[in-house]
Amino acid sequence: MGSTTLPAAILFGRQLCKTEYFCFLDDDDVLLPAALATRLKAIQDEQADVVVTSGIGTDGTRTLLDPVAVRADPLGEFLKRNWLTSCAGLYRASTVTDVFFKDLLNYLEWSCVAIRLLESGKKLIFHEAITYQLFDTANSASKQLTFESLNSQ
C-alpha cells in the first residue's frame, strides 16, 4: 500500500499545506470560475470539515448525481458512484490531517480518503454547485495497463 508515485504525491502535498483550507487538482482537470469561493462559503457557513461539490465528469455528466440522496446516505451513494474525485473537495486543514492521506491504495486513492472521512465521522457537506471539469487524457493514470489489470480482477 501507498508506495507508488500518486499516493506519495498526494500525501506530500497534504504535508506541505500550511493554510486553513486545502484542495487538490489534477494536471488535466480544471476548476471553474468561483469554485473556491463557493466551496469556502459552504465550508464556513456549515462549520464543516469537508465540502464536496459536483463537477462535469469525463462522460459529460454531473459527478454528484443526486446531492439529496448523497446527504441522506453518503456511504450507500458512494458505493453506487464515487462522489469524491480528486478535485471535488475543499478540506479544513485543522481537522483533515495528513493521516487521512497515508497509505492510500494505488488507483483507489480518493475512495480510500472518502471512506476514511466517513469512518471518522467528519462533517461532510455535499453542495450541488458545479465547480470543476474532469478531462480524459491519454496519459491519465486510469489509462495505464496496471489500472486495466486492477479492473479485470
Topology, please?
Elements: H1 5-16, E1 21-22, E2 30-31, H2 35-45, E3 50-56, H3 67-72, H4 74-80, E4 89-92, H5 109-120, E5 124-133, H6 145-151
Parallel strand pairs: 3-5
Antiparallel strand pairs: 1-4, 2-5, 3-4
Our estimate of the beta-strand percent is 15-25%
Main-sheet strand order equals 1-4-3-5-2
What is the makeup of the main sheet?
5 strands, mixed
| End-to-end Cα distance | 17 Å
Label the overall shape: globular
What's the pLDDT, averaged over the residues?
A: 89
Provide the low-confidence segments as ranges: none
Number of DSSP E strands: 5
Class based on secondary structure composition and strand pairing: alpha+beta
Helix content: 25-40%
Question: What is the structure about, briefly put?
Answer:
This protein is an alpha+beta fold. 36% of the residues lie in helices and 16% in strands.
Explain what this protein looks like in three dimensions:
The protein is of the alpha+beta class and 153 residues long. It has 6 helices and 5 strands. Strands 1-4-3-5-2 form a 5-stranded mixed sheet. The two termini are 17 Å apart.
Keywords:
153 residues; alpha+beta; 5-stranded mixed beta sheet; 6 helices; 5 strands; 16% strand
